[in-house]
């Protein structure tokens, strides 16, 4: 039986087959059999983990883990607990298709229906692409009437025209941050600080080599 199906006791994992117990470093700490001797080879590989922004990040590379290379998603810690939602989906597709889906929003008017329709304003645009600090960003700006429905009811006049923006940033290999906002203030900057908006983080964890 794989150790991944074991049970947790404190910060240790107990094998459900032989009841060997392993600590966070991967070393065996308890052998209930015979004289209880623990062979030096009784060790499993361990991986650095970091809990941050409601996610568990694991480094499975051969080089030493460098937490400084993790992008800053601290806005997920802002505001009340009721302002943050976490969910997951199992997708029967290569994870790179998910990256393509979120980075290229030309499909939204044709796939998702009224809730995030841009009334045809986004599709014709060729968004500028920016590459910096190991990330790739794309950005769209437009005006529509009525505003995009996921934001309309948070605006002063839900049926009136509003300016919008959406910016998507990909951090290789599989993390995408999407910010979208709308405002009816003609002088407001198009960013999350000056609009009614939403901050989304999409992360993909490949389940297999395919």
List the helices and strands and how they pair.
Layout: E1 7-9, E2 12-14, E3 21-22, E4 28-30, E5 49-52, E6 55-58, H1 95-103, H2 108-111, E7 129-132, E8 135-144, H3 149-152, E9 162-171, E10 175-183, E11 196-203
Antiparallel strand pairs: 1-2, 2-3, 3-4, 5-6, 7-8, 8-9, 9-10, 10-11
Quick structural summary:
This protein has three helices and eleven strands, in the order ββββββααββαβββ. With 210 residues, it is mainly beta. The longest helix is centred in the middle third of the chain and has 9 residues, at 95-103.
Description:
This protein has 210 residues and is mainly beta. The chain has 3 helices and 11 strands. The protein has a 5-stranded antiparallel beta sheet, covered by helices on one side. A hairpin with a 3-residue loop joins strand 9 and strand 10.
Summarize this structure as a short list of keywords or feature phrases.
210 residues, mainly beta, four-stranded antiparallel β-sheet, single chain, five-stranded antiparallel β-sheet
